[in-house]
Amino acid sequence: MSQHPPVVVSCGEPAGVGLEIAHTAFAAVRGEVPMVLLADRRHVTGPVFEVTSLSEVTGQETTLPLLHHDFAGDATPGVPDPRNAQGVIDVIARGVELVRSGAASGLCTLPIHKKALKDGADFAYPGHTEYLAALAGVERVVMMLACPDLRVVPVTIHIAVADVPDALTAGLLEDTLRITHAALIRDFGIAEPRLAVAGLNPHAGEGGAMGTEEITLISPLMERLSQNGMRLSGPMSADTMFHAQARAGYDAAICMYHDQALIPIKTIDFSGGVNVTLGLPFIRTSPDHGTAFDIAGKGLADPTSTIAALRMAWDMVGKRG
């Protein structure tokens, strides 16, 4: 039996690619990462090993372990059923309960479709991350995208570019730096994390000629945190931060807005990136893609990101002990 309880995998949107990926991902990590899928048995094609308790999962199963959760509707690939929206939300909450109770070691969330949840159950959150923070009672969490060659953290996330300068406050940036720093120590085993901080403006403002946020906000905060022992470099021009030689000089890149972070990691490793939520009292990873309704049920979905998310969650379990 495994030293730690299994990773629980929430099914996400049952009309998307998540459930078919769960089978192929399990085949890839079988005997390596103990896992159990939390889903409605009717929605899952292929053989499963149905359990009533996570304590039945040993990590040596040859068939995908499944913990059943009732949904109101059937699952048709590519066609979300509004009746299933509340079930998707409830599965996430149940997964969190299993982790927080100690029955599971971590949570890996398969993709949800935010519009389907809003239409079917009036889902009040922008996405997974914000809902998980609410369930955990945490005011601020950080989204990290990670692959073997790069870790990136956007300070501001799903807002318009025009709104970024106002949203980018010293408090938000400091929290992001501190949460990332702590997580790299606790969850990634990096004793003295090196954080590279991007500027907001082209050429990091070029001495104020292209913007002043680097001078008035970013640099003073970095100087203060550096004096307290944090290893920071920057603010850097974002267009010179992501080539191989530059990446060798830091453990994570702190970026000021969504695309500044996600374009480089998706260019370097489009299929293998993992979404990790930092700052939660439990481990949560997720594949870095959506429900892909257009290919759902056609056997075309790429399991690479889900496999990476499961392995990363299990590695984080080991780091936390």
TrEMBL record:
Gene3D superfamilies, A to Z: Isopropylmalate Dehydrogenase
Places the protein is found: Cytoplasm
InterPro entries: PdxA, PdxA_fam
UniProt-annotated binding residues for substrate: 128-129, 266, 275, 284
GO terms, biological process: pyridoxal phosphate biosynthetic process; pyridoxine biosynthetic process
Keywords linked to the UniProt accession: Cobalt, Cytoplasm, Magnesium, Metal-binding, NAD, NADP, Oxidoreductase, Pyridoxine biosynthesis, Zinc
Cofactor binding summary note: Binds 1 divalent metal cation per subunit. Can use ions such as Zn(2+), Mg(2+) or Co(2+).
Top-level EC class as recorded in UniProt: oxidoreductase
EC number annotated for this UniProt entry: 1.1.1.262
Pathway the protein acts in: Cofactor biosynthesis; pyridoxine 5'-phosphate biosynthesis; pyridoxine 5'-phosphate from D-erythrose 4-phosphate: step 4/5
Cofactors named for this entry: Zn(2+); Mg(2+); Co(2+)
GO molecular function, one term: NAD binding
Primary localization class, coarse: cytoplasm
Residues involved in a divalent metal cation binding: 158, 203, 258
Reaction it catalyzes: 4-(phosphooxy)-L-threonine + NAD(+) = 3-amino-2-oxopropyl phosphate + CO2 + NADH
GO cellular component, one term: cytoplasm
A Pfam cross-reference name: PdxA
Matches recorded under SUPFAM superfamilies: Isocitrate/Isopropylmalate dehydrogenase-like
Family the entry assigns: Belongs to the PdxA family.
Note: The active site is located at the dimer interface.
Primary role: Catalyzes the NAD(P)-dependent oxidation of 4-(phosphooxy)-L-threonine (HTP) into 2-amino-3-oxo-4-(phosphooxy)butyric acid which spontaneously decarboxylates to form 3-amino-2-oxopropyl phosphate (AHAP).
Oligomer status and interactors: Homodimer.
Name listed for the protein in its UniProt record: 4-hydroxythreonine-4-phosphate dehydrogenase
